[in-house]
């Protein structure tokens, strides 16, 4: 397994694997997060037998609730426990490590900044369910001259857990099933968010955004691990299992994203694949926009 090196008969030393586990907070959080998921996988065969092998879609009564014997979503369950909240948020800051951040390969200047109002008082980007704001932070550092406001939205427990937010980011406590408070932003961004939910909830969440978008101006960007129609890479399929057991969610194909966008009142523009594996970007505008 290469977890320890034997130096001599009685002494051992850590390897690069154990050193990484010791020194990297996101790596430690990943292991702890996987540990939270293990009991669910253990009981999954039982759950699927009882539910006649249907794809789970009831977020209050899925594999997570069955394994933990609760009636709340994983997010609500973790929200009651500061340690679990910290583990999850740290894990989310680490999942993008080793991959190029989307702002470095998506044509941000061309698709987002160029057509924006260029006014300081207008909102350039809302990061819906943005966690600790790592995407907004990277965006701002990469495009410091872009004008406009940046809004980070998440559940109260997550917003309260953000300790090192840079000053240009305004944090708003918001439940994305409720009315979206920020109107007419240039970009509404949802990264690793919708794969946590079954189709019906995806449409509800997106519809709250659609209602406040400015015609001919606002865009929606979805950062998602997209499943290829054939010969799928192993990574999004593993994420697919993880999302199913934890949240009754899933990873989806481009075709399925197109359908969900349309159901929420959006026009699918394009899927931008990432370089290598990892999450790509789905770009959409309001249905009826001439783009
Ligand atoms: C998988 S994380 C993604 C976080 C961040 N966008 C990222 O890419 O790291 C999903 C986020 O959705 C948030 N969330 C879950 N339910 C929510 C709700 N009802 N309203 C707002 N945010 C919610 C969680 O707190 C979490 O931060």
From TrEMBL:
Keywords: Methyltransferase, S-adenosyl-L-methionine, Transferase. It comes from Talaromyces proteolyticus. It holds the Pfam family Methyltransf_2. Residues 123-266 form the O-methyltransferase C-terminal domain. GO terms for molecular function: O-methyltransferase activity. It comes from the Eukaryota. One of its GO terms (biological process) is methylation. The keyword Transferase applies. This is O-methyltransferase. InterPro entries: COMT-like (IPR016461), COMT_C (IPR001077), SAM-dependent_MTases_sf (IPR029063). The keyword Disulfide bond does not apply.
């Amino acid at each position: 397994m290469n977890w320890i090196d034997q130096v001599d008969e009685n002494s051992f030393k850590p390897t690069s694997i154990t050193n990484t586990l010791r020194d990297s907070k996101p790596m430690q959080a990943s292991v702890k997060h996987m540990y939270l998921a293990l009991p669910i996988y253990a009981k999954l065969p039982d759950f699927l037998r009882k539910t006649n092998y249907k794809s789970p879609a009831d977020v209050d009564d899925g594999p997570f609730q069955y394994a933990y014997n609760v009636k709340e979503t994983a997010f609500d369950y973790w929200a009651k426990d500061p340690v679990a909240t910290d583990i999850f948020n740290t894990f989310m800051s680490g999942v993008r490590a080793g991959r190029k951040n989307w702002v470095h390969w998506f044509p941000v200047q061309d698709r987002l900044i160029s057509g924006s109002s260029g006014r300081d008082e207008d909102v350039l980007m809302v990061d819906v369910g943005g966690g600790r704001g790592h995407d907004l932070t990277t965006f701002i550092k990469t495009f410091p001259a872009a004008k406009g406001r940046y809004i980070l939205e998440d559940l109260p427990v997550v917003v309260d857990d953000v300790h090192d937010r840079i000053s240009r980011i305004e944090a708003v406590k918001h439940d994305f099933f409720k009315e979206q408070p920020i109107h007419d932003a240039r970009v509404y961004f949802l990264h690793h968010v919708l794969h946590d939910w079954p189709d019906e909830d995806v449409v509800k969440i997106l519809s709250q955004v659609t209602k406040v978008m400015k015609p001919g101006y606002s865009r929606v960007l979805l950062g998602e691990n997209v499943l290829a129609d054939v010969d799928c890479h192993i990574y999004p399929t593993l994420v697919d299992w993880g999302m199913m057991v934890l949240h009754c969610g899933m990873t989806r194909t481009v075709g399925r994203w197109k359908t969900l966008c349309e159901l929420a009142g959006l026009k699918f523009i394009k899927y931008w694949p990432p370089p290598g594996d990892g999450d790509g970007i789905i770009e959409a505008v309001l249905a009826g926009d001439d783009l």
